[in-house]
Structure formats: C-alpha cells, structure tokens
Amino acid sequence: MSIISDLRTASKAGRLPNLFTAKDCQKLNLPWNSGAYATYLPKHCLGNPGNYTAYFLRVKEGLYELLPEAGGNRANTRKYKYQALKDYLIVTPTQIQTITLSFQQVEIIIRANLPPAARRFRAWWANQQVGSRPQAESWMNAGFKVDKVNFTGTCVTFKRI
User: Fold this and answer.
1) DSSP strand pairing (38-41 vs 54-60)
2) By CB neighbour count within 10 A (0-12 exposed, 13-18 middle, 19+ buried), where does 13 fall?
3) Which among 126, 161, 156, 125 is positioned nearest to 144, based on CA atoms?
C-alpha cells in the first residue's frame, strides 16, 4: 500500500499516521527543505481537500511527524497544551544551542493558538516554573530557557540551559 493511499484512508477515517521517513515524503512529491523544521502537506494529498490541511514536522533527522494544522480539532487541556513544545525541544540535536521559532511555528507545534498575552507581554515568556505557568515548564523541563522575544518579528529564541 502506498503512503498516499495510507493518507487517504486515514484521512477518510479521521486519523492520520504519525511518522514518515524522508523517502515517504519524497513519494508525496513534497517540496521539502531539509533544513526546515516544518512544512505544509498540500490538502490534495489527503484526498479530502476541503476539510483538512496537515504539516510535516521534523522530529529527528530523516524522520517526520504528520500533525494537524494549528487550530485543528485536537482538544488541548491547559495542563498538556505545551507538551508538544517540550517534545519538540527535547529532540533538538544537542549541538544546537539556540533555536528561534516564529510564533506561528510555536502554534503549529502546540496545535493551538498562543494566547494574546504571548504576543504582547514578555512576562508570558518568563522562565518561571512557579504558579500556573505550563508554557515555562515545557521549555525548562526540555532543558531550554527563553533567551529573547522579538514582538516585532514575532519570534522567540530558546537557549539550551
């Protein structure tokens, strides 16, 4: 069975496979930048062009995870909303000491919109694990801290602790 037919079957069933190799991505004829961390999967590849867009996120070198687009139908609880960000940072190769993500990339990773405060207040990005700060727990438990926040450029830089 081909990866495209697997995707179509999974899409029709409301579920999608999680992990793909680079060869699987090539079979889909996706324009892929090997240095990128995420790319969109065209809707037509899923056989359900009106309802679903997905993207590939590089999990490890040569291995990609297919996830729903930000704002999809995944239910997030406050407690686990930022778990995907933690997972993403954990698998970042150890030789990478800093990683800059746009706010949109963070939203894609967590599969939800950032709260308005994240786009306006540096305090939201504070490296504090006290109180109700699940976002800070996610990056700090992954071994990173927020180094810089650029509200004009809408991006955040994480630095390995």
Assistant:
1) antiparallel
2) exposed
3) 161
- pLDDT tens by residue, 17-37: 455 566 666 666 554 455 545
Give the tens place of pLDDT for each residue, 64-108. 555 544 444 333 355 578 888 888 888 888 889 999 999 998 988
- Residue 147 near residue 159, CB atoms below 8 Å: yes
Question: Which residue has 């995870």 as its token pair?
Answer: 65
User: What burial letters (b/e) apply to 112-132, b meaning 16+ CB within 10 Å?
Assistant: bebeeebeeeeebbeeeeeee
Residue ranges per domain, the chain? 3-68, 83-160
Can you give the pTM of this predicted structure? 0.56
Burial zone of 25 (CB within 10 Å; 0-12 exposed, 13-18 middle, 19+ buried): buried
Q: Where are the alpha helices (DSSP H) in 3-126?
A: 3-12, 22-27, 83-90, 103-110
